[in-house]
Fold this sequence. Notes:
Layout: H1 5-23, H2 25-28, H3 34-40, H4 43-63, H5 79-88, H6 95-115
Amino acid sequence: MRFTEHELTVALTGVAKNVLAVQDKDVRKGRRTEDELWESMGRYQRFVVLDGLGDQLLPTLVALPDVEVPAGGRPAYTDEQITAAVEERLGDERGVRRKALLTARVALVKLALECLPPRQDPDALIVPDHL
């Protein structure tokens, strides 16, 4: 499956919000939401977070095997497929560090796949009534 730019952006933003929410005490205690935290950040702060996560996630998401996704559905990958795609991009890391990076990146890729919006039917042109 080839992801669209919009799908990748939504997935990356969803992961960024989740990662920030885990680190923020106010979100954990329910004083504010992930979206409020995201909106309170400056544009440059958001860019830094997205850039760091993008370097880890985007190459792996692009490397996942092609699967057919019906309109309104989301892609489904096995744990083995995700792990294989992540392992190909880990580089020369060895030992415990490699295992920790592998576990963390597999979790991030799974979260990104959960954040993907449902696939839209490219052939269904929806024209608003006001046009």
